[in-house]
Each structure stands twice: as C-alpha cells, then as structure tokens.
Write a structure and sequence with these properties.
With 217 residues, this protein is an all-alpha fold. It contains nine helices and no strands. The chain has helices at 2-6, 26-29, 31-43, 49-61, 68-88, 94-117, 124-155, 162-190, 193-215. The termini are far apart.
Length: 217
C-alpha cells in the first residue's frame, strides 16, 4: 500500500503524440519482439534457482550445512547491489545488449552446472566450497542477463510505444516466474544432476538466440 501511494507523487506525462497512430496490439504483432520476450521468459528462470531449487538441492542432495544457503543469498544480493550498474554499462545500445544476453547464457550454464556437482562431495566443507564457486559464477550470469534484458526490452521498442512494449515484456517475465517453480523442481530435483544441465542448456539457448533475433529485425 505504501509503495502504491508513493506513485501518486510522480508527475503525469501525456502519451506520445504518435501513440494514437498505432494499434493497441502492435507489440503483440511484432513477432521478433515476441520471440525476444519468450527467450527472456526462459532466462528469468535463473532468478528462482536460489530461492526454490537450491535450498531443496542443498538439503536433500548435498552434504553442505543448511545454513550455507544464507551465505549464498547474501553473496548474491551484495554482488548485485555493488556491480549491477557497472554491468549495465555494457548494454547501452541494442547490439551490445544482445551480445550481453549471449554472454549471460554462457555464465548461467556454468553456474547451474556447478551447483549440481556439489552432490558428489561427501565433505561438507568441499560441498560448501563448490556451492560458493557456483554462486559466484551464477551471479555474473545474473548481472549480465539483467543488464541485457533492460537493454533489449527498451532498445527494440519504438519510442511512441514504450508502454505497450514493456507491458508485453513484463507479461513474459511474469509467465516465466509462474512456470519456473514447476520447471526447476521437475528438472533439478526430479532429474537430479542431468536436470541441472538441462536447465543450464535452456538458459544458454535463451541467451544465445537473442543476437540472432535482434539481427533479424
């Protein structure tokens, strides 16, 4: 409620003069933008690894102490707070943002694959060390993916239709968050180590196709 009320203090801007010349479904008719939105809806699965898949993985499939999850979450949060603005500098135009999305795919694949390897270490110390390394790799992918997502979302939308395009993009992100719990528990917990690699493959593919789609616009 407080957050909603705070919006009342923002200035009101009139719609872009050219907005009325376009259909309300223009963004949905933009196939390449829809494809980019779909790719992003898969990429955002990684946001839910730390709060859904990883806690259950640590408890049921590794020898690491349960409290290590708190360390991993703090590592992730602090890293994002410190470095996100710096990484955003690499997505100042559409082309660089698309390249950053592909780079994010590499890092995210490596991160989630590394999480799976913790199950092979009987020593709590070694398992914890592997999880911390995986978390560090994961957060690099997260920083790249977040910066790329903003760059692509705003860079592909016409100035007159930013609101419409961002609504579609936000819808895709929301759908990704809706599907993520089912996908992560099925892959990472149901399939085990191979499932982590499948998840990594999905994240890699989602990032890899972004420059291809952008170049086809």
């Amino acid at each position: 409620m407080v957050a909603a009320l705070s919006l009342l203090g923002l200035p009101r801007y009139e719609p872009h003069p050219e907005a009325k010349d376009h259909r309300k479904s223009t963004a949905l008719r933009d196939r390449n933008f829809v494809y980019l939105t779909m790719a992003n809806s898969i990429s955002v699965f990684h946001y839910h690894v730390v709060d859904i898949a990883l806690p259950l993985w640590i408890v049921f499939h590794t020898s690491a102490p349960v409290w290590v999850l708190s360390i991993l979450m703090v590592m992730n949060t602090v890293s994002v707070v410190i470095f996100q603005v710096r990484y955003a500098a690499g997505a100042e135009d559409l082309t660089s943002a698309a390249r950053l999305a592909r780079k994010a795919g590499y890092w995210l694949f490596a991160g989630v694959a590394c999480y799976s390897l913790a199950t092979y270490f009987e020593s709590p110390l070694l398992a914890t060390l592997v999880l911390m390394i995986a978390s560090a790799i994961h957060v690099v992918g997260e920083l790249n993916q977040a910066a790329a997502a903003f760059g692509v979302a705003y860079g592909t939308a016409p100035d007159a239709l930013q609101g419409q395009y961002q609504a579609v993009w936000g819808l895709g992100t929301g759908l990704g968050g809706l599907v993520a719990p089912i996908a992560l528990t099925t892959l990472c917990l149901g399939w085990g180590v191979p499932g982590w690699f499948v998840l990594g493959g999905l994240l890699f593919a989602a990032g890899f196709v972004v420059p291809i789609i952008v170049s086809a616009r």
